[in-house]
Amino acid sequence: MMIKIKRIYETPANNDGFRVLVDRLWPRGVSKEKAKIDLWLKDIAPSDQLRKWFAHDSAKWEDFKRRYFKELDKKKDLVNKNFKKSKSGITFLYAAKDDRYNNAQALKEYIEAR
Question: What is the pTM of this model?
Answer without folding.
Answer: 0.92
